[in-house]
Amino acid sequence: MDHYEMVENLRTKANVTYEEAKTALEASDWDMLDALVLLESEGKVNQTIPEFTTKEKTDETRSSARSKEVKGSLSKLRAWIRKMIALGNKNQFVINRKGSELVAMPITVMALLMVLVWPFSLIVLCLGLFLGTRYSFRGPDINIAVNDFVNKAQDRAAMAVEARVE
Predict the structure, then answer these.
(1) What's the average model confidence in pLDDT over 6-17?
(2) Contacts with 132 (C-beta within 8 Å, 6 or more apart), sequence order
């Protein structure tokens, strides 16, 4: 950076005249920081100096932005989980045998059983097919098309099992 640019830069940052900035730089052997300190000690620096940022501050700002982004994502995830639990609690997984309802449990409970004790749950569901049980979903949020698809698939599986058993 040439001397003219240095004077202009100091003049802008310290809010002083061109002559004051040039004199301070010449007195400090063209060292920008020393010239700024000299101007401050003489009381010539206006208090409305723009704030200088450091690399640490920039890193803190980035870290803060990332932190806010992560918190926002976690907040959205929590809201989605709450919504899914509410939907699962309003709708039911139903087990029928010979036309009578054996069990009707919230889908949330069924999902937890499938996750926590999946081998046992899977064995019980498959064993139920051999014993003539039927599975279905019901509730205000169950889409009729999805429910029909699931029920038809379950009926086909039950009929296939019954055909093999007989």
Answers:
(1) 88
(2) 97, 98, 158, 162
Cα–Cα distance measured from residue 122 to residue 40, given in angstroms and rounded to the nearest whole number? 78
CB 26: neighbour CB atoms within 10 A? 12
Closest by CA position to 158, among listed 136, 137, 138, 143 = 136
- pTM of the complete model: 0.50
Mean pLDDT for 79-103 is: 91
Mean pLDDT of 120-136: 86
Residue 161 token pair = 């099992």
Q: Directed axis angle between helix 18-27 and helix 32-41, to 10°?
A: 110
- What pLDDT is stored for residue 49 in this prediction? 45
Q: What are phi and psi of 92, to 5 degrees?
A: -125, 150
Q: How far is CA 55 from the centre of its chain?
A: 27
Tokens of 49: 């100096």
Q: Classify the phi-psi angles of 113: left when phi > 0, otherwise alpha if psi is within -120 to 50, otherwise beta.
A: alpha
What three-state secondary structure class fits 63? helix
Instruction: Report residue 20 as tokens.
Output: 């004051």
Give the whole-angstrom CA distance, residue 153 versus residue 100: 20
Q: Measure the CA angle with vertex 98, ends 95 and 101; round to 5°.
A: 35
- In angstroms, the CA 18 to CA 9 distance is 10
